[in-house]
Amino acid sequence: MLLVGVQSGRLFTDDMDRNFRVLKEHGFGCVDFNIDVMLPVAQIKTGEPGGFFDKSVEEICEYYRPMKEAALKYGVEIAQMHGPFPVWVEGRDEDMNPYVIMATEKCFAAAQYLGCRHVVVHPVAISLVHGKEKERELNLSIYRALMPAAKKYGVKICLENLFVSTKGHCIEGPCADVSEAIWYIDRLNAEAEADIFGLCFDVGHANLMARNIYDYITALGPRLAVLHIHDNDGRADLHMLPYSYTRNGKEPLIDWEGLIRGLHDINYRGDLCFETFHCMSVFPPDVHGELLDLISAIGRHIVAGILA
């Protein structure tokens, strides 16, 4: 498809017609929908969910009917969703952890209703405390629990390459190394006997881990399902515009040409979603229109390179 999109976070209001009209006016063909706002991190960690996912699947789909209608009206696809995060919290196996799994399954149902093919479900990072083996066992158990719902609703579960912040530093999280991402995806798809797992490659996270972006993408190959495209300074997860940061005033810090070549070489035909929500806070509101125009223009530049 190679549709260019941006995430809904810090862009959407309660007016769905307005939201999708703005996307269309600024050249976007898809959106990355933050359904996770209905079960925020704070609610998960405190064990006090707001109640949205206590609704039935039918009630949740009806809640999103205005979104579906607006998306169809303006011809903008819902390319991916951010599922609830985190999907597991230490010590909450009796209450919150099963609730988050249930909520994620209902996100899959909403995704099917909205025509969304991909839902990002972050792996859990516990290796600092429990070691890598326990981390992998936990993540496998979580994704196994989600397999039936993914099959039922026809969505692909997307893991993501992550980092972990500790003592002021960013260190490797799950799937930071491409070999681990491949291990998870191939094993889970084999167990599911279906192609229901892929990777959401987060360009900014890869930069924090000083990964070679071209090598990561080409190693993934067809396992690459969706993209989170944004920039940072190599020290913090800033979620800014591509080409914002530089090594020396001349060359970009992130190898954007390597990204484009990698996507070209694996014949990537998924969508390009920009996870640049911090820009909506940093830039003054009276230039948000021009900002969105620039993001979509960068997206078209990347698409042209992929197809070259």
Notes on the protein architecture:
With 308 residues, the chain is an alpha/beta fold. The chain has one domain: Divalent-metal-dependent TIM barrel enzymes (TIM Barrel, Alpha-Beta Barrel). The chain contains 13 helices and ten strands. The strands form two sheets. Strands 1-2-3-4-5-8-9-10 form an eight-stranded parallel β-barrel, surrounded by four helices. Strands 6-7 form a two-stranded antiparallel ribbon. A hairpin with a 2-residue loop joins strand 6 (163-166) and strand 7 (169-172). Helix 11 crosses helix 13 (288-307). The longest helix has 22 residues, at 132-153. It starts with a strand and ends with a helix. The mean pLDDT is 97.
CATH homologous superfamily identity: Divalent-metal-dependent TIM barrel enzymes
Tally of alpha and pi helices: 13
Residue runs with pLDDT of under 50 for 5 or more positions: none
Proportion of residues in extended strands: 5-15%
Assigned CATH architecture: Alpha-Beta Barrel
Query: How would a crystallographer describe the biggest sheet?
Result: 8 strands, parallel, barrel
Mean pLDDT: 97
Global structural class = alpha/beta
CATH class: Alpha Beta
By CATH, the topology is TIM Barrel
Could you give the order of strands across the largest sheet? 1-2-3-4-5-8-9-10
Along the chain, the helix and strand elements come as EHEHHHEHEHHEEEHEHHEHEHH
Task: Kindly provide the radius of gyration, computed on alpha-carbon positions and rounded to a whole number of angstroms.
Answer: 19 Å
Strand element count: 10
Assign an overall shape. globular
The domain tally reads 1
Specify the helix fraction band.
40-55%
